[in-house]
């Protein structure tokens, strides 16, 4: 009987501890969301490393992304992606080809840069896991878990949020298929003036480009 009571007490305190971790995580994430959404534009330099069961070695790339509302322009080693809020155009540099689709048709398969910065807002539970030194700063460590695992591409997401700035600096997406993506946000510039035309692919600037509708 005494052993049973001890087990019940342990379970009770474990549940209380998890609830407290969840509440602390929510407070940190809410603050990060508010701050990120308060910027008119963001320009971010980042590094991404992708590992998968299909590749012996991880693939690493560097890039920049500009974000303004629901619009963004992503520039990485081999491609550029333009989103004007309605359409997405992917330009393959080496092939000099572009592929266009409606944003609403691609939303289920494409995680936009802005969504990565606020991924916790839709369909995730969260847990606070203390602090960690990263890139010379103290960061809050938070783990995310999908509320509906069966319909989620990821089983776990690890975030590092700069404690002083309340901004995401590292995102580790662990895929259910074994594909993992690590994003390191190297530099962030806020509220720069960016013209809306920057988010639309300009065929005239790419002589000979072939474009296809998907």
Short description:
This protein has 214 residues and is α+β, with helices and mostly antiparallel strands. The protein contains three helices and twelve strands. Strands 7-8-9-10-11-1-2-3-4-5-6-12 form a twelve-stranded mixed sheet.
Structure characteristics:
214 residues, alpha+beta, outer membrane lipoprotein receptor (LolB), chain A, 12-stranded mixed β-sheet, 3 helices, 12 strands, 21% helix
- By secondary-structure content and strand pairing, the structural class works out as alpha+beta
Name the poorly predicted regions.
8-18
Question: How confident overall, as mean pLDDT?
Answer: 88
What's the total helix number?
Answer: 3
How many strands, which pairing sense, and closed or not: the largest β-sheet? 12 strands, mixed
């Amino acid at each position: 009987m005494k052993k049973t009571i001890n087990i019940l007490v342990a379970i009770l305190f474990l549940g209380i501890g998890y609830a407290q971790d969840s509440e602390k995580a929510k407070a940190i994430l809410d603050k990060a969301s508010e701050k990120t959404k308060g910027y008119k534009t963001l320009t971010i330099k980042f590094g991404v490393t992708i590992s998968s069961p299909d590749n012996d070695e991880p693939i690493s790339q560097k890039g920049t992304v500009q974000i303004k509302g629901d619009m963004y322009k992503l520039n990485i080693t081999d491609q550029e992606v333009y989103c004007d809020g309605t359409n997405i155009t992917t330009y393959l540099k080496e092939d000099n080809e572009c592929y266009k689709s409606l944003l609403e048709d691609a939303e289920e398969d494409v995680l936009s840069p802005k969504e990565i910065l606020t991924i916790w807002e839709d369909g995730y539970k969260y847990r606070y896991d203390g602090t960690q030194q990263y890139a010379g700063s103290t960061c809050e460590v938070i783990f995310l878990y999908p509320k509906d695992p069966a319909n989620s591409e990821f089983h776990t997401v690890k975030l590092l949020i700069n404690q002083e700035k309340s901004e995401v600096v590292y995102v580790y997406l662990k895929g259910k298929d074994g594909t993992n993506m690590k994003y390191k946000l190297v530099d962030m510039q806020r509220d720069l003036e960016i013209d809306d035309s920057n988010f639309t692919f300009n065929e005239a600037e790419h002589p000979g480009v072939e474009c296809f509708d998907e």
